[in-house]
Amino acid sequence: MLHGKKLQSIASFDAMAGAARQHLVALDDRLWRERYRFDAAHKRAHTCTIKPRVERRLRPGTTLWDSVMHYLKAGYSPEQVTGTLARGGDRHGRRPGMVSIHDRPPEIEERLIPGHWKDDFIKGAHNRSSAGTLVEWAMLFTVPAKMENATAEATLTGFSHVLNRIDAQKRLSLTYDHDREMAAHQRLTEVTGLQMPS
Q: Which of 12, 51, 161, 194 is the most buried (most CB within 10 A)?
């Protein structure tokens, strides 16, 4: 009886092996008929490595290239160049009417007196949506500001709406980044009465 089971398992193994051989032969025939064309595949792979899928923005002879070279020669790191260009220019270049962050009163830096605010922006994909936030430094109280888009005019409207609802003694200054959304900082000062060291 034991001998019969061994013969039966050997027979089933042979049947499985035969089926596998037939499958491989059929697969080999199909591949032979379809004929993998290594020369065409090689040419396509070579073309894909030469021609980028996305056109490069940083190319010699462009304005962007000249700007990057200028900052690199001035001693900026690649990360600093990227940050500077993303903000729209050199951080040391001042907008008209801008108060330097170094000229702000010490109570702002030390965060002892409530009423000193910092702005920030949250932007959606491709700048299609945006929101502003105002953070009071001493208490870390955060207020969202609705923005219609990421423009200076929308920032002026959103921030002035929020800030003017806060008591005057609790809105002493606003420190902001050099983002293009804050291009209307002088008008925001006029509307809210805030000092604006940047």
A: 194
